[in-house]
Amino acid sequence: MTILVLDVRLPDDFNPADQGALARALLALWPKFFPYALSFYVLGSTWLANIKVRARGEFVDRRYAAWWMLYLLLATCIPFSTSVVGRFIHYDSAIWLYTFNMAALSTVGYRMTTLLPDVENDKHLLDRKVSLLLLFGTSLLCAALSPIAHGRALWVYVLNVGAPHLVRWIEMKRHTPRKS
C-alpha cells in the first residue's frame, strides 16, 4: 500500500523561495494526498476484514483461489487508479476509473465471502460483508455524483469510515428482541 504515496510528491525542479512557498506547495498536494489516504484506508480496512473472517475448513478450493487472484489483481490496480484520479480529479473518466476499481474490488471480495468453505457466521463475517457492500454503494454514488460534483464526488468514500458503526448497529438490532 505504501507504493500509493509515490505519486504524492513535489516536482523535481521545485525550489521554494521561502518557507511560505514551501508551505503553499505542500498544501497544493492535497488533491493528490486525498485519493492516496482514501485508497490506503479502503485497502487497509478490506485487508483487515479479510484476515478476520475464519473458515472451519482447512483448505479452499480452486474457485476460491481464482477469485483471490482476481482480487489481488484489482488491489494492485489501486495505485494506478489512485494516481490517475489524483492527477485528474476534475475529469469524470478519472473518477470512473477509480470507482470502477473500487466497485470491482468490493464485488470480488464479497463473492469470495460466499465461496469460503464452512465459514463462521460471526461478527467478523458481518463486518466484511457490510464493509464491502458499503464500498460498493459509495463507489456507485461517487460515479453518479461525478458529473455534477466533479472532484468533490470522492468525498462520498468518507462514508466508509462509518462501516464499524453500521456493523454495531446491525448487531444490536439482531440481538434486540422484537416487541409484539
Coarse morphology: globular
- C-alpha Rg (nearest Å): 19 Å
Q: Main sheet? A: none
| H/I helix tally | 6
Q: Strand tally, please? A: 0
Sequence of secondary-structure elements? HHHHHH
| Helix proportion | 55-70%
- Mean pLDDT over the residues: 82
Tell me the count of domains. 1
SS-based class: mainly alpha
Structural key phrases:
180 residues; mainly alpha
Can you tell me about this structure?
This protein has six helices and no strands. It has one domain (17-175). The mean pLDDT is 82. The chain has helices spanning 19-27, 30-52, 62-87, 92-115, 123-149, 163-175.
Condensed summary:
It is built from six helices and no strands. The chain has helices at residues 19-27, 30-52, 62-87, 92-115, 123-149, 163-175. Helix 3 (62-87) packs antiparallel against helix 4.
Topology at a glance:
Blueprint lengths: L18 H9 L2 H23 L9 H26 L4 H24 L7 H27 L13 H13 L5
